[in-house]
Design a protein that fits this description.
The complex is a heterodimer of chains A (about 80) and B (about 625). Chain A has about 80 residues and is mostly helical. Chain A has a single domain (about 5-80), classed as ACP-like (Non-ribosomal Peptide Synthetase Peptidyl Carrier Protein, Chain A). Chain A is about 60% helix and about 0% strand. Chain A has 3 helices and no strands. Chain A has helices spanning about 5-25, 40-55, 70-80. In chain A, helix 1 (about 5-25) packs across helix 3. In chain B, the strands form 4 sheets. Chain B has a 6-stranded antiparallel beta sheet. In chain B, strands 4-5-6-7-11-12 form a 6-stranded antiparallel beta sheet. Classes of the chains: A mainly alpha (about 80), B alpha+beta (about 625). At the A-B interface, helix 2 of A face helix 12 of B.
Chain lengths: ~80, ~625
C-alpha cells in the first residue's frame, strides 16, 4: 500500500467511526450516501465540527450539504491535508 | 440624545413632574452620562440623556420648531440630515442648530408622518404636536434604537429601556408568559412582546399615535422588508451590476456612519463582515482608528489568527484581550440586567467586555457587521433549507406540524429551527404543572407575532431572511446583544449593513447571488475581494459555540446552585422542580457534553430565566 493510499484509508476509518457515532448505526459502506442513511443537516453540521476537532481542518459546510459518502469525503480531506 | 423617556396623559390625569422623569432617566443614565434635559407641560413630560457624539453639550432641551408647537426627544442619528436640511431650508424653515436631530421637527411640520419614508438613520423618538395635542412614538426601520412603553390608568409611560419604566413602582414587575414561551422557542421574545407583562416594545418600522382626551392608542407600520414574490418578474442585470452597486451603497453607508465629532472605532471579530466594514473605513479615510477584538483561550474557538491578518493589513491600533471561560460567569448577572431578559447563550458577556475596552480608549461610537448574515443567507440554516427542499424532508412533517407552520410562518413547508411539536413536548416536561394547565392560553403559536403576508409566496431564502430579521436580529442581535451591551458602557453601536437605501437594494438582488450553490454571502465576498485579505474570504463562517450550562454547573458556582435549588424552583412556580433536578444531574455528569450549536441548552435557559427573576425582583407565580 502506498503512503497516499494509507492516508486515505486512515481517514476513511476515522470517518467511519464518526458516522457510526452520529448515525447510531454500523451497517453501511464507504460508498453509501450520508443522507440516504438517514443523516440530517444538523448531523452533517456535527460531522463538520468533529472533523475540525480530529483533523484540524475547517471544512466548508457546502461540502456536506449535497450528496456525499465516506469515500468522497476522505478524498477531499486528503486533498486539504496536502 | 441616547436615551429618552416620557409620560403622556390620554384621558388619565396623572400629575407629571420633573422628578418622575428624572427617576425614569436615572435608571438608564449609562446611555447618556454627558447631559440630561427635561420638559414638563400640563398633559405630558419629556426627558432625555445625552451621550456626547456630535457636540451639542449645551443642549439641555428637547428639539423644537420655530413656534414651539412641535417638540421632540430622540435617541439616535439621522444619517441623511444634510440632504434633508437643504430641502427644509429651501422650503423656508429655520433650523436652530447643526444637529442631525434638529431636522425632525421641521420634517414633521412639512410632511407629517410621511416624513418617516424620507429618513435614513437609527432612531427612536417621541414627538409632541402641541396644536393637535398628540403624541407620536416612532422607531427606526430595523429596530436599532430601543423604545418601550406601558399604559397605566390611561397614561402612557415610555422609555429607551424597561428599567426606566419599572423605576415607577406602580408599574408591576410580572412575567409575560407568552414572552416566556417565546424565549424558550425563538431566539428572543419578539416585539411588541417583552418578558414583562404589560410592557411593550414598539416594533421596528412602526409608530404609535395617541391624543389627549381620547383613550384610543393606535400603532401603525410605516415600513417592512417586502421581498419580491417568487412569480414577480424582475429586470435582470449582470452580476457585475449588483456587485458594483452593493459596493457603492455599502461604502456610502460606512461613510455616513463614521461621521461624528468623537473618534469612531470598530469591533473586529475576524469574520467576513466586520473585516469588510473596517477595511472600508480604511479606504474612506486616512484617520488613524482604534479597533477591538477578544479571543478565546480555547484554540478551537479562537479567531485571533484571522483578527491579526486583518489588523496587520489595516495598520490601525488594535486592542485585544483574551477571554477566559470564567469571564463569562462573572458577567452573567450584569448581562441579564442590561439585556432586560434572559438569554439563550452566554456570548453577550464578550460584547460587554469589548464595549468596556472601547470606552477605556475614549471611543463613543463603534461600527459592527451585524445584519449581513440575515440579508445575505449567511447562517448555515439557509444551506440546510436548500438540502431539505432538495430531499423534500419538509413534506414529511405531520399534519399537525404543518398546520402550525402554516399558522406561524404562513407556509406549511417552512421549518425555522426546531419542530413546534418537539419544542412543545420539551417545554411541557420542564414547565410546572400550574403553567402546563394553562399552557394553551399563553402558547406563543396562538398569538400572532409576524406578518405572514410578508413570508407567503417568497423564495425560501427570503422567507428565512424576513423571519431572521424580525426574530433574531431586531430583538436579539442588535438589541440585547449590541445596543444594550454597548450602551451599558456608554458606547453607541452603528451597523452599516442596516442602511435603508442598501437594504431596499438588497431586496432585489437575485437569490443566487446571496447563496450561490452552497456558498453563503457570495456577493459580499465578491465585493470583499477588493478590500479584505483572501484567507478571511475563503474561510468557513465561524460558528461560535459559547460555553453552555454544563461548564457553568461543573464549576459548582454557589450562586447558580442557589438559583436552581429545589426549594427556590418550587416556590417560584415556573418550572417542575423534579425536571430541573433531573437536568442538573444530567448536565453535571462527567460524560455529558452538549454540542451547543445543535442541542438546545434548556438548562442554560432555566439558569438565565431564574437570574432574570432575581435581578429584576419578579414576584413568584
Amino acid at each position: 500500500m502506498t503512503h497516499e493510499n494509507n492516508l486515505k484509508a486512515k481517514i476513511e476509518s476515522s470517518l467511519f467511526k464518526m458516522w457510526e457515532q452520529i448515525l447510531e448505526k454500523s451497517d453501511f459502506s464507504f460508498n453509501d450516501d450520508f443522507y440516504d442513511l438517514g443523516g440530517t443537516s444538523l448531523q452533517a453540521f456535527s460531522l463538520v465540527l468533529q472533523i475540525k476537532k480530529e483533523f484540524k481542518i475547517e471544512l466548508q459546510l457546502m461540502y456536506v450539504l449535497d450528496d456525499f459518502c465516506i469515500s468522497s469525503l476522505a478524498e477531499l480531506l486528503e486533498d486539504k491535508m496536502r | 440624545m441616547s436615551g429618552i423617556c416620557g409620560i403622556f396623559n390620554t384621558i388619565g390625569n396623572t400629575r407629571i413632574c420633573e422628578q418622575d422623569l428624572m427617576k425614569m432617566s436615572d435608571a438608564f443614565a449609562h446611555r447618556g452620562p454627558d447631559g440630561e434635559g427635561y420638559l414638563v407641560d400640563q398633559y405630558y413630560g419629556l426627558g432625555f440623556r445625552h451621550l456626547n457624539i456630535n457636540g451639542n453639550l449645551n443642549n439641555n432641551k428637547p428639539f423644537m420648531n420655530e413656534d414651539n408647537s412641535v417638540q421632540i426627544v430622540c435617541n439616535g442619528r439621522i444619517y441623511n440630515h444634510n440632504h434633508l436640511r437643504e430641502k427644509l431650508i429651501s422650503k423656508g424653515h429655520f433650523l436652530n442648530s447643526s444637529s442631525d436631530l434638529d431636522v425632525l421637527v421641521h420634517m414633521y411640520e412639512e410632511y407629517g408622518m410621511e416624513m418617516l419614508n424620507k429618513l435614513n438613520g437609527q432612531f427612536a423618538f417621541a414627538l409632541i404636536d402641541r396644536q393637535e395635542h398628540k403624541l407620536f412614538l416612532v422607531r427606526d426601520h430595523f429596530g436599532i434604537a430601543p423604545l418601550y412603553y406601558t399604559v397605566l390608568e390611561d397614561t402612557i409611560y415610555f422609555a429607551s429601556e424597561i428599567k426606566g419604566l419599572i423605576a415607577n413602582h406602580q408599574i408591576e414587575r410580572k412575567v409575560d408568559l407568552t414572552g416566556m414561551d417565546q424565549f424558550f422557542s425563538l431566539p428572543h421574545p419578539v416585539s411588541p412582546r417583552t418578558m414583562f407583562k404589560n410592557i411593550f416594545s414598539l416594533p421596528p418600522g412602526h409608530y404609535l399615535e395617541a391624543k389627549e382626551g381620547f383613550s384610543e392608542i393606535t400603532k401603525k407600520s410605516y415600513w417592512d422588508i417586502d421581498y419580491p414574490l417568487v412569480n414577480e418578474s424582475l429586470t435582470a442585470y449582470d452580476e457585475s451590476y449588483y456587485v458594483d452597486k452593493l459596493e457603492g451603497l455599502l461604502l456610502n453607508s460606512v461613510e455616513l456612519r463614521t461621521q461624528a465629532d468623537v473618534s469612531v472605532g470598530a469591533f473586529l471579530s475576524g469574520g467576513l463582515d466586520s473585516s469588510l466594514i473596517t477595511c472600508m473605513m480604511k479606504k474612506l479615510s486616512s484617520e488613524q482608528r482604534k479597533i477591538f477584538s477578544i479571543y478565546f483561550e480555547n484554540k478551537e474557538f479562537s479567531e485571533q489568527k484571522y483578527q491579526k491578518i486583518v489588523a496587520d493589513q489595516l495598520g490601525y491600533e488594535h486592542f485585544e484581550e483574551i477571554f477566559k471561560i470564567d469571564d463569562i460567569a462573572k458577567r452573567l448577572e450584569n448581562v441579564v440586567y442590561h439585556s432586560e431578559a434572559p438569554l439563550k447563550e452566554s456570548f453577550n458577556s464578550a460584547t460587554l467586555a469589548l464595549s468596556k475596552m472601547a470606552k477605556k480608549e475614549n471611543i463613543n461610537v463603534i461600527l459592527t457587521g451585524e445584519g449581513s448574515d440575515e440579508l445575505f443567507a449567511g447562517y448555515p440554516s439557509y444551506r440546510f433549507d436548500k438540502l431539505r427542499n432538495k430531499r423534500k424532508w419538509n413534506e414529511e412533517a405531520s399534519l399537525e406540524e404543518k398546520t402550525l407552520r402554516e399558522k406561524v410562518w404562513g407556509d406549511p413547508l417552512f421549518k425555522y429551527e426546531t419542530d413546534f411539536l418537539e419544542m412543545r413536548s420539551s417545554k411541557n416536561s420542564l414547565f410546572s404543572r400550574f403553567l402546563n394547565e394553562s399552557y394553551d392560553e399563553f402558547d406563543f403559536t396562538g398569538h400572532d407575532f409576524l406578518s405572514t403576508a410578508m413570508i407567503k409566496g417568497r423564495h425560501p431564502i427570503h422567507q428565512r431572511s424576513y423571519i431572521d430579521l424580525k426574530v433574531r436580529l431586531a430583538d436579539h442581535l442588535i438589541s440585547d446583544h449590541s445596543d444594550r451591551m454597548l450602551m451599558a458602557n456608554s458606547v453607541e453601536g452603528r451597523f452599516p449593513f442596516l442602511d435603508i437605501d442598501l437594504v431596499n437594494f438588497i431586496r432585489y438582488i437575485p437569490v443566487g447571488l446571496k447563496l450561490n450553490n452552497f456558498d453563503e454571502k457570495y456577493i459580499v465576498k465578491q465585493v470583499a475581494a477588493k478590500y479584505v485579505p483572501e484567507p478571511i474570504i475563503k474561510r468557513e463562517k465561524f460558528i461560535f459555540i459559547a460555553p453552555g450550562s454544563p461548564f457553568l454547573l461543573k464549576q459548582d458556582y454557589e450562586w447558580i446552585m442557589d438559583l436552581l435549588s429545589y426549594e427556590t424552583i418550587k416556590r417560584q412556580g415556573y418550572f417542575d422542580p423534579d425536571a430541573v433536578e433531573h437536568l442538573k444531574k444530567k448536565f453535571v455528569s462527567p460524560d455529558f457534553h452538549l454540542k451547543t450549536s445543535i442541542d438546545i441548552d434548556y438548562m442554560l435557559m432555566v439558569i438565565m430565566f431564574c437570574l432574570y427573576l432575581k435581578v429584576f425582583g419578579i414576584a413568584d407565580l
